[in-house]
Amino acid sequence: MLPGGIDAHTHFELPQMDTISSDSFETGSAAALFGGTTTIIDFASGPPGTRDTSLVDIARAALARANGRSYCDYGFHLIINQVPPMAKLMPMLRTIIEEYGITSFKTFLAYDNLLISQDELLRLIEACKQYEHYGALVTIHAEDGASIKALIAQHQQNINSNTQIKYHPLCHPPKSESDATKLALQLASTVSAPIYFVHVSCQEALEALSAIKKCGVSGVSGVKCWVESCPQYLFLDESLYNLPPAEAAKYVMCPPLRGTKDIEYLWRALLNGEIDVIASDHCPFMLHQKLKETNFSKIPSGAPGVENRVPLLFSAGVMQRGMSLNSFAKVIATNPAKIFNLYPQKGVIREGSDADLIIIDPRPTQTISHTSHHMHVDYSAYEGMQVRGNILYTILRGKIAVDKTTLKINCGTGKFLPRNLKIGKNVL
Ligand SMILES: [Zn+2]
What is the largest distance, in Å, between two alpha-carbon atoms of the chain? Predict the structure, then answer.
C-alpha cells in the first residue's frame, strides 16, 4: 500500500500546432486513476499565440474549464509567457495565489510564443521569492531556444532540407538543455530563490543540477533546485527516431529522447536520490494528429504516459533495480506534494491526510498496450512492454475510485486543490 500517485506534469486539452492534445479532463483524469495517480497538476495557459492576456484571467479560465470534469483531484501551474513590470506583477501574483490557489509558475527558455527573456525570468523568480511564505515557485523548461532555432534553420534550409524525424534530436542537443539549465540556475542563485526543473532528460543537465544540490552556485548559499524527470527519458532512447515516420512520430517530444548513456545516468541518479520527482509530461496526440505533417518541427510534441508512470517505475525501479518502497513513494507522490504545497494533505499515509492510496500486487506481469489503456489516444509509447505489478485498487479520499479494471466514481468527484494554505513552504 502506497500513497496515491501525484503527477505534477500533465497536459490535458493542450492547444499546440493548430491542434489540441487528445485527452480531455474527463478521459485523462480517469486514466490517471487507472494508473495509480490520484492527483494531477495540469497547466493554465492563455489562448495560443497570445502574450497579452491577464494572468489572473488565465487562472480563472483554467479553473472554470476543469470545474466538474475531473475524476481525480487536480491543481494547476500557471504558464507565464510575459512577465509584467514588478509593480504590476506583484499584485497579480498575489491574486492568483490567494484567490485562485495557484502557487507554481511555468516558464520556458525556448519556443516562440512561450519563451521569456532572462530579465523576465529573473523578475519572476524575484517576485516568487517575495511570496515564498506561500510556497510560490518558478518551474522551468530549460532548453536554449536560440540555438534550437538556429539548428532547425541550418538543417531545413540547406540543400537536403533535412526535415525527417531523425534530425529532431540533433536540433535539440543535450548542450542546449544544459546551457539553459546553467543559466536558470545562475539567475535563481542571484536572488537565492528555489527553482524547479521540469523533464530533465540528459546527463549534462543533470550533472549541473546535482552539483548545485551538493555545493550551491559559486559559493552562493540558499539556492535550492528540484529536479523532475519522466518515464520516457528512463525507458525509451533516441534510436526510435530512426524508425519509419509513422513510428518515429510517436516519440517527437521536447526535449527529445536521449542516448542509452543518458538513460543509464538518469537511472543511477534516480536511485541515488538526485532526481526528486518523476512526472509523466503526459501530452497525447492521436496518430492522425502526429502524422499530419512529416517535417519534425511541425509535428505536435509530446507522448502519452499519465497511466503508465506508476506501473513502469514500480516495475523497473522497485522490482528490477531494488529501489526501496520509500524512495519510490517519494518520487511518485511525497516529494511533489511537498514541493507544490500539497503536503501533508497529499503524498503521505497519515492520520488527518486525505486517504489517497494505491494497493499494488507485485506478482502479476502485465503487458502495456493501447488496446487496454484508458488514455484517449490510439497508440502507446510503451507498446508491448512487460511490467511487473498490478494496481488492485486506487483509493481517492477514502473511496475506491478504481477496483481492478472498473472505475467506481463519477466524473466531477475530483476536486480542485488550492495550494495557498501556508501549510509549509516547499517543505522538502
Ligand atoms: Zn510539459
Answer: 66
Q: How far is the CA of 9 from the centre of ligand 1 (A)?
A: 6
Q: How far is CA 89 from CA 56, 98, 123, 133, in A?
A: 10, 14, 9, 17
CA of 408 from ligand 1 middle (Å) equals 29
CA of 347 to the centre of ligand 1 (A): 21
How far does the centroid of ligand 1 lie from the alpha carbon of residue 54, in Å? 22
What are φ and ψ of residue 297, in 5° steps?
A: -80, -5
> Do the Cβ atoms of 281 and 198 come closer than 8 Å?
yes
- CA 102 – CA 405 distance, rounded (Å): 33
Q: Is the peptide bond before 418 cis (omega within 30 degrees of 0)?
A: no
Question: pLDDT tens, 8-27?
Answer: 999 999 999 899 999 999 99
Mind listing the pLDDT tens digit for each residue in 31-49? 999 999 999 999 999 988 8
Q: How far apart are CA 353 and CA 343, in angstroms?
A: 8
Of the CA atoms within 13 Å of residue 144, those in its CB half-sphere come to 17
Q: How far is the CA of 158 from the centre of ligand 1 (A)?
A: 30
Residue 424 has pLDDT above 60, yes or no: no
Kindly state the cell numbers that stand for 40: 494531477
Q: pTM for this one?
A: 0.96
Written as nine digits, the cell of 164 is: 525527417
In the chain, the domains with their CATH numbers are 2-406 (3.20.20.140)
